[in-house]
């Protein structure tokens, strides 16, 4: 029996729809610049920059966690064995590698300004050519989201992509992202492609994607922000195609989409359409009938008996036209039904799991909210399945008890809130959305043994983690459960291995950031979403309001790092908000303004203190640059040449030095096209507090999927981490460190 909140993870995941990322870009090269601690850099000074081209390939890798995000579709090519693709809601597109048994990410090259393309609205295979595929990519169709989605084409199985000339609002991270398919290629003519949009009707290409035209003859009006959800061809009848308008019904064309008519009595809430090899159209729906079929102009209700749940997953065996699989879409687990007579009779498949991810448990092993279930066209009785957390496969769907094994190696899809790499103990702790967070006890290349909650307080999210600078095994983390609006935190005395929940925490208050005193682990300050900051002097037994600070920003989807403790003086804390720096010298009881008008209001920022140095405060202000104080925030100097400071972190100094390594996700001033040819960002390291910089980024993987947190190891020089909004955690380990 799992904790009651575990069964609500389906609801937790849907809150991701509110997440809005910021827009920036990426750079490459190795450069050295002269540092000038003034508030501006003149053009003459910029022209003096010494530039060196780097020939070293820097490789950033994923920290192994194991899935953790929604796989919204799975696609098997009919001509080539083991050619399998998946699309996801926030972590891009992948191709299966049979030899290594892992998923290869296909869209790592998208930069931060292209973050919109990490959400999959559709994927289509050319059924006549195993090299060609198309993806529809775009995160949100809502008015608050500024970017349009688009369609890309690959002629080499996703190794390279060409953007096509169709730009529309898409919703790869919106409702019904688990249904479909919206993007399809005609089996009788590979030049013909259809795309069903959410807001802008039906679109068609007749030249393999080179040009697109809206199908103005399509009669339905789209009014529910779901739009045209599913399109399916009958490969036996050239020109016969079906299109499902969610909330309206199913339409039919017999002339390759030139003319359309609505099929009478068709399901209005259909999720998926599949045309069998005998031309029977099968449909799964949210409402009654849950499963139906259409043949020779007649609809037949074939829902499994005594099942009143919504159905989504649907597959017809390409070799046996009457063998069908359907799956319900439940919160607590999924029912899978199998028929070998076209739905006349059904058997609910008894399931067992062969779990190969150490920390998966409870609902994760019950395959919640199946998005797709697919017969393998080349391996008899093999079936693939995708759900909230990853991909499953069985080798024998006909078995009395079907054994499903999870295959998520290479698929990393968590959303990161916080990272900590303490000077002693485990190399990394992570605070994540939806799966709590991890004590990475098995290193960076092996799945952690368990979530935080398996050794203490279990949460949906961990928003912030901190440790005591002089006693780093003493830690604190804060978080909550968004699904029922309960929030709290926990302390650890063994470096995050086990956790003890706070004895109390104010009700209905969402904690955002936490900072622990450098000398007293019972003293820490917590900022509150849309509320007054609070503090405790007894490890969370009781709380009191902090005075002098403005209300915190709205959470949970806010990644600005506003709060930090001085690393030496135990009663000193710092806070940044709205171009103002605050400081407390009485243990966080009260704060006062120490510096104003730093660089203008900046909502995306990070405030950090340099390890081991009293009064050393650094603030990154995105496009306003990077700032440095040596007197506890009384004055600040701008780091010359840093044109953009999106994220930064301090790490262990190199051998022979006491100056912490400084890492930057940002932009360094340069007149060279080699290092800044598209005015984009890169990842850099400085060993002299910003006087000179070395490029350590990866041009092939710019980490563009909403990078939101940067941390560096305090134990190993050259090891740095970047947390993302959907691709988990990346790390770089300098080969010459």
From TrEMBL:
Protein name per its UniProtKB record: Sortilin N-terminal domain-containing protein
UniProt record similarity statement: Belongs to the glycosyl hydrolase 74 family.
Highest rank taxon of the organism: Bacteria
Keyword Protein biosynthesis: no
Gene Ontology annotations of biological process type: polysaccharide catabolic process; xyloglucan metabolic process
Gene Ontology MF: a single term: hydrolase activity, acting on glycosyl bonds
UniProt keywords, alphabetically: Carbohydrate metabolism, Glycosidase, Hydrolase, Membrane, Polysaccharide degradation, Signal, Transmembrane, Transmembrane helix
Transit peptide among keywords: no
Residue intervals passing through the bilayer: 12-31
Classification via InterPro entries: WD40/YVTN_repeat-like_dom_sf, Xyloglucanase_GH74
CDD domains: Sialidase_non-viral
